[in-house]
């Protein structure tokens, strides 16, 4: 076990897998230079220009090109700096990559990885702050992975890089510098397996990516008030480990969904619908969604703070649900 | 170059097979075959000329008007017809229809329902070949409509800067889904755009199968030897409508005179005349070729008709490589 930042765990894992499998290669904007957020630091020096390729600022063709390479035996990893920019490539993501296997009747596979960052909460402005995971969930054929810790990032990235399907591997930029223990030995975390990050019996908080940490902070405060919140991180939204969420709700009888994306049509809307279908009789309180109200995320920090869920709001919602 | 008798007979046969297959599709469609059919009758010289210059393991990416490409690359006609008839033996197991047909075994990586979307995918196949050092080449077929959209521009820029082994084949048939190209682009010689991406572009007579073949062979050689991409703009014309849903051959948006003048350039007629003039084929020999093509098409139809319907439950399969809950 070694303490590492989230980003160093990701970079080390990419390096390990590129070492092991010469079909894996990295594409993106300034990946040779290590990236604006140092997301690919050292990989170009180690693997050279045939494995680490700088693309023009042209997301549509970059995704299409990654797809074409994936269909013909390679395993491309394409970094997209902010998920807002992925919207430039939604035809290739949703119409092409997601559907290629299906439309060929299973004859072809598209094992590409889109490594996409999201940036809410940092005054990055309207085009650098969206969290669009719920949109990706709408396209059968994609998988959607959102780690929250360095340990999970390593295990999930290994599974992602060895998967046979197009995978959206999303991470919030605030996670990059977060430190945590990472086993040095080889391990994978299967896609579709949730983890209880903190056990509790009074309420289930389902959160992913950066919101896991806000939820854990809230749970810590609530513990001081005698409330035991369970924090459950699905880790992958597609496939979703619904049975673990159902199990938790059966125990706590209360469900709070926290996410950094917009509320309408969000991840919470979807998961709560499933819980209502599967565990309605176990609910003692209407399930609650804590998400960004249906506005864009503005630049000014006081405005952005008004809209985003945080530990204090999570704590207040839980108190409301228990009284 | 010296064109042998056998070679030109082969090209002619390829074009004729495509023509006869598409004519059969018209007949079946009139009789109730489901689907949307954008036929390439009139454009056969481009598909045949280009694909003949490729190796069996080279890749092509195609468009909604892709039957000719599928056939010229050597795609399985029985599986193709079975696909159109929604059979379990179909080339996409009934999931694709005419706008998504694939035959990966012969490098036909897919038609596409979205105009322009297959162009970056072709670049990716070329990138893959380059990274693997396989010396394969990818051809991206697209139309004059796709030439004006983002993926096309991005792809050509990318292919130019990465020197990808890709040949861009623009089939300029003068109409972008029923709208004259002159309304959509300020130049009509689209090959000129290649200069802006830093690689060669050529205007090709798309009704002349030998001209298409020769230019393609040059471009393929350059690509295979690390010289990067080429844009070939093949001036061509389809003799049916935009799709078979139209009751007349596109006469709602183009004139009968124009159609007639292009029909006079029919690539099959042209090849046939050349064959007869050179004494490389007799009427009887050419009829024999035609009979063989018709027979191949009939065999495809019988195979498709006698195949079982694709089970409805297959709709639920193949979403993922590894199934998810």
Account of the 3D structure:
The complex is a heterodimer of chains A (323) and B (325). In chain A, 39% of the residues lie in helices and 21% in strands. Chain A is built from twelve helices and 14 strands. Chain A starts with a strand and ends with a helix. The model of chain A has no long low-confidence stretch (mean pLDDT 97). With 325 residues, chain B is of the alpha/beta class. Helices cover 43% and strands 10% of the residues of chain B. Chain B is built from eleven helices and seven strands. Chain B has a five-stranded parallel β-sheet with strand order 1-2-3-7-6, sandwiched between helices. Chain B has a two-stranded antiparallel ribbon with strand order 4-5. In chain B, helix 1 packs across helix 11. The mean pLDDT of chain B is 96. The chains are: A alpha/beta (323), B alpha/beta (325). Chains A and B meet through helix 3 and helix 5 of A and helix 5 and helix 6 of B.
Overall number of domains of chain A: 2
CATH class of chain B: Alpha Beta
Name of the CATH class of the largest domain in chain A: Alpha Beta
Number of helices of chain A: 12
**Name given to the CATH homologous superfamily of the largest domain in chain A:** Thiamin diphosphate (ThDP)-binding fold, Pyr/PP domains
Please give the alpha-carbon distance between the first and last residues of chain A.
Answer: 42 Å
Characterize the largest beta sheet of chain A: strand count, sense, and whether it forms a barrel.
Answer: 7 strands, mixed
CATH architecture of chain B: 3-Layer(aba) Sandwich
CATH fold field value of chain B: Rossmann fold
Average residue pLDDT of chain B: 96
């Amino acid at each position: 076990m070694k303490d590492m930042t989230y980003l160093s765990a990701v970079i080390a894992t990419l390096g390990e897998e590129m070492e092991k499998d010469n079909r894996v290669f990295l594409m993106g904007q300034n990946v040779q230079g290590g990236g604006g957020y140092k997301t690919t630091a050292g990989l170009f020096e180690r693997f050279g220009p045939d494995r680490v390729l700088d693309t023009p600022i042209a997301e549509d063709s970059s995704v299409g090109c990654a797809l074409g390479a994936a269909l013909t035996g390679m395993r491309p990893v394409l970094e997209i700096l902010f998920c807002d920019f992925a919207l430039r490539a939604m035809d290739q993501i949703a119409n092409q990559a997601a559907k290629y296997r299906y439309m060929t009747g299973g004859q072809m596979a598209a094992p590409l990885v889109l490594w996409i960052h999201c940036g809410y909460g940092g005054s990055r402005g309207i085009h650098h702050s969206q969290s669009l995971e719920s949109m990706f969930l709408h396209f059968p054929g994609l998988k959607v992975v959102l780690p929250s810790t360095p340990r999970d990032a390593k295990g999930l990235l290994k599974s992602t890089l060895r998967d046979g399907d197009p995978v959206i591997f999303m991470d919030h930029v605030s996670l990059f510098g977060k430190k945590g223990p990472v086993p040095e030995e080889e391990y994978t975390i299967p896609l579709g397996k949730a983890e209880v990050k903190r056990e509790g019996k009074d309420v289930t908080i389902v959160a992913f990516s950066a919101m896991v940490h806000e939820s854990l902070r809230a749970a810590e405060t609530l513990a001081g008030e005698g409330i035991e919140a369970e924090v459950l991180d699905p880790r992958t939204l597609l496939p979703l480990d619904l049975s673990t969420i159902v199990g938790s709700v059966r125990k706590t009888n209360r469900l709070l969904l926290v996410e950094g994306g917009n509320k309408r049509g969000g991840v919470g809307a979807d998961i709560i619908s499933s819980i209502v279908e599967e565990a309605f009789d176990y609910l003692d309180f209407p399930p609650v969604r804590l998400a960004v109200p249906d506005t864009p995320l503005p630049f000014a920090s006081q405005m952005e703070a008004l809209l985003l869920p945080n530990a204090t709001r999570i704590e207040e919602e839980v108190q409301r649900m228990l009284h | 170059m010296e064109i042998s008798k056998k070679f030109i007979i082969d090209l002619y046969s390829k074009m004729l097979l495509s023509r006869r297959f598409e004519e059969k599709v018209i007949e079946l469609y009139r009789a109730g075959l489901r689907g949307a059919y954008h036929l390439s009758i009139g454009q056969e010289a481009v598909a045949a000329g280009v694909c003949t210059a490729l190796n069996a393991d080279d890749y092509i990416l195609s468009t909604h008007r892709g039957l000719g490409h599928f056939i010229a690359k050597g795609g399985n006609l029985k599986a193709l017809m079975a696909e159109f008839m929604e059979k379990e033996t179909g080339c996409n197991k009934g999931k694709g229809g005419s706008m998504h047909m694939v035959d990966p075994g012969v490098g036909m990586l897919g038609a596409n329902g979205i105009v322009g979307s297959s162009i970056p995918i072709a670049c990716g196949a070329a990138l893959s070949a380059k990274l693997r050092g396989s010396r394969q080449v990818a051809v991206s077929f697209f139309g004059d409509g796709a030439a004006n959209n983002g993926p096309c521009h991005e792809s050509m820029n990318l292919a130019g800067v990465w020197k990808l082994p890709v040949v861009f084949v623009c089939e300029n048939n003068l109409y972008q889904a029923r709208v004259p190209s002159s309304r959509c682009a300020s130049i009509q010689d689209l090959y000129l755009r290649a200069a802006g991406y830093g690689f060669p572009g050529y205007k090709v007579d798309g009704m002349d199968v030998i001209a298409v073949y020769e230019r393609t062979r040059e471009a393929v050689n350059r690509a295979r030897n690390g010289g990067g991409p080429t844009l070939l703009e093949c001036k061509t014309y389809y003799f049916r409508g935009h799709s078979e849903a139209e009751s007349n051959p596109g006469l709602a948006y183009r004139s009968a005179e124009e159609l007639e003048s292009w029909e006079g350039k029919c690539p099959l007629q042209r090849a046939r005349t050349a064959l007869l003039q050179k004494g490389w084929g007799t009427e009887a020999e050419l009829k024999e070729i035609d009979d063989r093509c018709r027979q191949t098409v009939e065999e495809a139809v019988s195979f498709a008709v006698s195949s079982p319907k694709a089970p409805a439950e297959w709709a639920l399969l193949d979403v993922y490589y590894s199934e998810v809950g």
